[in-house]
């Protein structure tokens, strides 16, 4: 960033010097007579403050204002027009209230305009995204949990023109899980509405892979995770405990472990890498690298769940504690099942915890504890793969839970395949938070 000379202004009868240092002016605007600065001040807790000054030199003030604005926004477009979806039923049902009190003032200060839809039913956002004219908008914003992002993405990818899916998506956390926002912001500030709003205003698009899911004659897309076993049970089986917040997931996991539940399945997978040391080393090397752009395609290379399993796939038939596939490091606070997940490596991270290896409650609890920091990948009892695709078929049961992006789907066989770089998510610096493994 080139140096910006300080500006002399007056605050009342006092002479004041304004200067930009380390991009501390987060949001900036001006009028024809005065200099008005809107700034988010703080570190973990950001607070919107506004300052108004009378410039000593009007011509210099106009030039200074332009330079500061260019520096503050860098490559981001200022004054974005946003399409916003608010789910009034997510989390503690306060999404509309927090938007009005916490988020709207920041968007207004940044000169953003917006069109708001309050969703009224499941898949309301998905239905709108299938047909809405996207040309007026710069960003699609979900104010809810991960469910509304799942709807937005599926609506985009069901449109006739696949290039429509390139419009960036922004996240404001208002749900009980908010896993995607943890991946974007980190656990320290993922609940901060101010940090999330600032990411939408000044963030950069990050290309992310999608998971194509086929189940029966249905097809949909997943951006986060596919779970079977203990993790699915503690997610979907604790809906009545939403009042506990993220603690409900811990409670559900412990309950499943102490009840000794059995989960039988057949897992077939197209393995790209099974050596955990190689997977960890690759993650460290590729985290800061720029992946090459690839053509966008919604086509499945490996067919659907109804096709025969390819001959070169590996098949496991076993009792398991849990099986998780995914594309993001975190699936909840203190839960990092995929510490080596990269946003656009074209592969799915697949975790398999076999029941015979987690033969005691102590080992099962240790597995859940180690997953808080992603250290379970170091456990010899846990298998961790990078795969191009996999198929899971439940066995010995006709009823149970399968979770896709935290949402319940049919308890039936499903197949997952990675589709590279189909969606853009606004992030701080074009990557997920780093997992130190």
Automatic annotation (TrEMBL):
SMART domains assigned to the protein according to its UniProt record, in alphabetical order: DAGKc
SUPFAM superfamilies, sorted: NAD kinase/diacylglycerol kinase-like (SSF111331)
Tagged with keyword Transferase: yes
Domain DAGKc, chain residue ranges per copy: 77-217
GO cellular component, one term: cytoplasm
Keywords: ATP-binding, Kinase, Nucleotide-binding, Transferase
Biological processes per GO annotation: sphingosine biosynthetic process
Cited InterPro entries: ATP-NAD_kinase_N, Diacylglycerol_kinase_cat_dom, Lipid_Phosphate_FormReg, NAD/diacylglycerol_kinase_sf, YegS/DAGK_C
GO MF annotation: an example: lipid kinase activity
Pfam families for the chain: DAGK_cat, YegS_C
Domain of life from the UniProt record: Eukaryota
Keyword Transit peptide among UniProt keywords: no
Protein's name in the database: 22507_t:CDS:1
Organism: Dentiscutata erythropus
């Amino acid at each position: 960033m080139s140096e910006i000379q300080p500006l002399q202004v007056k605050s009342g009868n006092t002479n004041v010097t304004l200067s930009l240092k380390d991009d501390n002016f987060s949001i900036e605007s001006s009028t024809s007579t005065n200099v008005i600065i809107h700034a988010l001040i703080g570190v973990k807790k950001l607070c919107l403050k506004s300052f108004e000054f009378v410039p000593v030199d009007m011509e210099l003030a106009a030039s200074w204002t332009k330079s500061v604005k260019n520096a503050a926004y860098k490559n981001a477009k200022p004054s974005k027009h946003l399409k916003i979806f608010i789910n009034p039923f997510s989390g503690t049902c306060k999404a509309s209230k927090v938007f009005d009190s916490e988020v709207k003032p920041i968007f207004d200060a940044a000169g953003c305009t917006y069109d708001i839809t309050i969703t009224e039913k499941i898949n309301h956002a998905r239905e709108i995204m299938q047909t809405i004219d996207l040309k007026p908008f710069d960003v699609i914003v979900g104010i809810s949990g991960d469910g509304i992002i799942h709807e937005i993405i599926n609506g985009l990818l069901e449109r006739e023109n696949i290039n429509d899916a390139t419009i960036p998506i922004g996240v404001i956390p208002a749900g009980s899980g908010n896993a995607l926002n943890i991946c974007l912001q980190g656990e320290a500030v993922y609940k901060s509405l101010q940090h999330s709003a600032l990411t939408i205003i000044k963030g950069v698009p990050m290309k992310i892979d999608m998971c194509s899911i086929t189940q029966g004659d249905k097809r949909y897309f997943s951006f986060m995770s596919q779970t079977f076993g203990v993790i699915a049970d503690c997610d979907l089986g604790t809906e009545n405990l939403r009042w506990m917040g993220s603690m409900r997931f811990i409670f559900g996991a412990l309950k499943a472990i102490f009840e000794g539940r059995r989960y039988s399945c057949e897992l077939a997978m197209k393995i790209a890498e099974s050596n955990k040391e190689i997977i960890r080393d690759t993650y460290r090397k590729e985290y800061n690298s720029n992946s090459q752009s690839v053509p966008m395609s919604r086509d499945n290379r490996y067919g659907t769940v109804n096709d025969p399993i390819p001959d070169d796939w590996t098949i496991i038939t076993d009792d398991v504690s849990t099986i998780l596939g995914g594309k993001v490091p975190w699936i909840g606070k203190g839960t990092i099942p995929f510490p080596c997940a990269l946003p656009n490596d074209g592969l799915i991270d697949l975790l398999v915890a076999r029941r015979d290896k987690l033969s005691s409650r102590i080992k099962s609890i240790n597995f859940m504890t180690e997953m808080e920091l992603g250290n379970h990948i170091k456990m010899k009892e846990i298998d961790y793969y990078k795969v191009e695709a996999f198929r899971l078929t439940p066995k010995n049961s006709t009823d149970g839970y399968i979770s896709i992006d935290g949402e319940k789907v049919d308890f039936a066989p499903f197949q997952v395949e990675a589709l590279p770089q189909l969606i853009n998510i606004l992030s701080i610096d074009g990557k997920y938070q780093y997992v130190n493994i």
